[in-house]
Structure formats: C-alpha cells, structure tokens
Sequence to fold (181 residues):
Amino acid sequence: MGSASVPSGLRVGGAATAVVSGLGLAALAVPALRRAFEDDRAAEAGVGELLWTVLIRIPVGTVLAEEVAFRGVLPALTGSGTGSPGRAMIVSAGMFGLWHVLPAMSLAGDNRAVEATVGRGRLPTVLLGVSSTFLVGLALHALRVRGRGVLAPALVHLATNSGGYLVSWLVQRAARRRARG
Fold:
C-alpha cells in the first residue's frame, strides 16, 4: 500500500468526496436539514479561526491523526493482513466510535438539530454520536479497502469535517445577517 495506491486512493476518494460534498450541499436546500449546520462551535469564529480550523487543525489534528490510527494502524494490528478483514473493520470502526464519546457529550449543547432530535441528555447524545461514528468508521474502512490505503478515507474525512465546518460557519453568518435585518 505504498505510492502505487495513490492513483486508486485519489480516484476512489475523489468520487466519494464528490458524493458526500454534493449531499451536504443539497442538504442546505432543505430547511429542516439546514438546521444540522447550525452548530455553535463555528458561530463565533472569525476568518482567522475559520482558516486555522479548516486548513490546519482539522486536516492535521483530526484527519491525519485519526486516519493513520483508525484506518492505518488498527486494521494492521487487528487482522487486515492476516486474513481477518472483517475483524479489522469492526475493531477499527468500534474504536473510532468510542474515540468520539467526549466530543459527543457536548454535541446537543452545540448543535440545535441534535438537541431537537435527542434532547439535551448526555446518554442519548453519546449513543447517537458513538453509533453514527461507528457507521462512518465502517464506511471509511470500506473506502480504505477500495482505495488500497488511507488516502481515500482521508479525503472524505477532510471534506466532511472541514467542509462541514466551513458550511456551518457560512450558515451561521448568513443567519446573523438576516437577524440584523
């Protein structure tokens, strides 16, 4: 899975990124789905913080770290090279879900759509967060296999996290402009 996997990773990751980005942008056209982008974590960010978050913190601190750990190291340690790809996928996706317990604990307070769906209780929010990131982990692992490396899932992860933050920031700014009249 060296440099020979780069073209495959770019092709698979690029196609999946286009689909994920298209779905995210389509969600903006539906008012009920647009609420998912009303995330207070992006609401108060200035342009400098936006650029730092989208171009440095998320790509390096989140995507690179998580993809190396959850789609690179864990599958190698848990069976992907030993004929147990199913175990590798379940373990890496499960650990990816558990990795998101702490972020999920504050999600309902930061995101009005999550709060409207599950309330402000921590247990339902954590269960939703862990189970959804487990499912995302399965999909990212499938991209890892299809793209023959971590490049494809990294591209999708980057588009989802940085793209989602950017869209959330834009939605919040537009809402503030409308509120001011």
